[in-house]
Design goal:
This protein has 327 residues and is an alpha/beta fold. The protein contains twelve helices and 15 strands.
Length: 327
């Protein structure tokens, strides 16, 4: 069965004027937050919703939770139509939500925050989660670090043992050790049968915990696939430092994409066979080499900006930063 189902879900804001509304502006000035989204999330699945800032991730989440009304299309969450207020209120008793902007009252303590949430929706797992994430409950929120505030948010999202948890950039502000602790927790939740839907722009994070991913670009779903397929398409980001300077064009070979000089190194995306890359590097005097995940934007540019269907509109990063709030 499906925990979440979208069919043609669209959110348009009309004439955005000079407002920094989240979404893509059309030639008429209309702002398109999300555009004809159709996909399902199965019960017990960990689903990653990927996209750079401004892609429409937060708009989608707010629409699923009934915080925004769709312009057209339909969506159900735990069987409740997002346009049926009474049904959605009932469904929310079984939903945990971790927003990107937590919005806690800075004057109250973490203890007060959790007490309020427990009074509304219960807190059967509160102590278990506090042992794992340990925010300083006795201190007021204004004294919290970003990481501590995020951990408090994680506790409140899961402490009533929800069937579905929806999260927006859940590890933002967490240090690497706390991120890994959270990823391990999500893997355990999947074993318990909890459905998890979370947005992210960090490819490596999604790789560790997700079963499937949907990729959003300027409000449109441009890919829906399992993690292994995504990684195969995305390739790796390689940075190699050679003993002697080499022209990027001369260095390029099958599988290398966008070879460029960065300081005294060459940087490129590699989407070929790794043994072939090692054989190619053996022809040079290599001083150092780093291989890691490519930036998510590189995956979009090289694999989802072109194809059999019409490509989504593209803008420069500076245009996106000027026109789009974090969506």
């Amino acid at each position: 069965m499906s925990a979440i189902e979208l069919e043609g879900l669209t959110k348009r804001y009309g004439d955005g004027g000079s407002l920094r509304l989240p979404g893509r502006r059309t030639g008429s000035g209309e702002v398109v937050g999300i555009d004809d989204l159709s996909f399902t999330v199965a019960e017990g699945e960990v689903f990653g919703f990927l996209g750079p800032n401004g892609a429409g991730k937060t708009t989608t989440i707010r629409t699923l939770l009934g915080l925004l009304s769709p312009t057209s299309g339909t969506a159900t969450v735990l069987g409740a139509d997002v346009l049926d207020e009474a049904a959605l209120v009932e469904a929310k008793r079984r939903i945990g939500y971790l927003p990107a902007d937590l919005g806690f009252d800075e004057g109250v303590t973490g203890e007060r925050v959790l007490a309020l949430h427990a009074a509304i929706k219960g807190g059967s797992r509160r102590e278990e989660l506090l042992e794992l994430f340990a925010p300083p409950l006795e201190r007021p929120i204004r004294e919290y670090s970003t990481g501590n505030e995020r951990m408090l948010g994680i506790v409140q999202a899961f402490m009533h043992d929800p069937d579905l948890v929806i999260m927006d950039e859940p590890t933002s502000g967490l240090d690497p050790l706390k991120q890994e602790r959270f990823h391990e927790f999500l893997r355990e939740e999947r074993e318990r049968g909890t459905t998890v839907f979370f947005s992210s722009h960090v490819l490596s994070e999604v790789r560790q915990v997700c079963d499937r991913v949907g990729i959003l670009r300027e409000g449109r779903l441009v890919a829906l696939e399992d993690v292994e397929t995504l990684l195969a398409r995305g390739g790796k980001r390689v940075r190699v430092r050679l003993a002697e300077p080499v022209d990027p064009e001369a260095f390029a070979t099958d599988g290398t994409i966008d070879v460029r000089r960065v300081g005294d190194s060459l940087s490129f995306t590699y989407a070929g066979e790794y043994n072939a890359l090692l054989s190619h590097l053996a022809d040079y005097d290599v001083v150092d080499v780093e291989i890691g995940e490519p930036p998510l934007e590189d995956v979009f540019m090289h694999y989802y900006g072109e194809g059999d269907g019409p490509a989504p509109e593209t803008r420069t990063n500076s245009e996106a930063e000027t026109e789009v709030a974090d969506a």
